[in-house]
Design brief:
By secondary structure, the protein is an alpha/beta fold. Helices cover about 55% and strands about 10% of the residues. It has one domain: Rossmann fold (3-Layer(aba) Sandwich), CATH 3.40.50. Helix 3 packs antiparallel against helix 4, helix 3 packs parallel to helix 5 and helix 4 packs antiparallel against helix 5.
Length: about 200
């Protein structure tokens, strides 16, 4: 089974992935943040490095999905291939930070990959307001995220909402995170687990 966690920067994807993998004994699959050779450069010069960064993520996530399906295990994935293609890349293009030529090239490759993969059995979307995102980003203190602007997060949130409102590929669980602290409050985590149980039971 393939479970995926989606959400904006700072929404709590990695934290929830860790907690759920521990609770269910699922194999976690994380973003290649530490091994990403473009991330620092991208935040310093988005226009120069946007295409390279998105191609790296596309390749990385496609490889992850192939491994997940081959493994035969239940895997929980931190961020999906869809978010790059429907949120991050088009946002960079609309902001003038990725050329039309590069975006068209990127998206045609995504569409080819997408035709060859299966969607997750369950998609968990973490919905968070911009103030919540900013608070979480500041807490984790990654240097390269210091330059993220509020309008950038707002644009991403708008694209997330548009994408999730039309998501029809499989089961979807939306979790409102503004008033939750599932990292430190066991009751908040238990409520999420109960909702996931109800969704997973419907998969069999």
């Amino acid at each position: 089974m393939h479970i995926a966690v989606a959400g904006n920067i700072g929404s709590g994807k990695t934290t929830l992935t860790k907690l759920l993998s521990k609770n269910y004994n699922w194999e976690p699959n994380y973003e290649d943040i530490d091994d990403n050779p473009y991330l620092n450069d991208f935040y310093n010069d988005m226009q120069r490095w946007s295409f390279n960064l998105q191609m790296f993520f596309l390749n990385s996530r496609y490889s992850q999905i192939l491994k997940i399906r081959k493994s035969g295990k239940t895997v929980i994935q931190d961020r999906t291939i869809y978010e790059d293609a429907h949120i991050f890349a088009p946002n960079l293009h609309s902001m003038g930070l990725m050329s039309k030529r590069d975006f068209d090239n990127y998206f045609s490759l995504y569409e080819l990959m997408n035709s060859l993969i299966q969607p997750p059995d369950l998609l968990i979307y973490l919905r968070a307001s911009v103030p919540t995102l900013v608070s979480q980003i500041q807490k984790r203190g990654r240097d390269y995220e210091n330059s993220i602007r509020l309008d950038y997060l707002k644009r991403l949130n708008e694209r997330y909402e548009a994408w999730i409102s039309g998501y029809k590929l499989g089961k979807l669980l939306i979790i409102e995170t503004d008033d939750l602290n599932f990292q430190e409050n066991p009751e908040d985590l238990r409520n999420i687990i109960n909702k996931i149980d109800a969704n997973i039971n419907g998969l069999f």
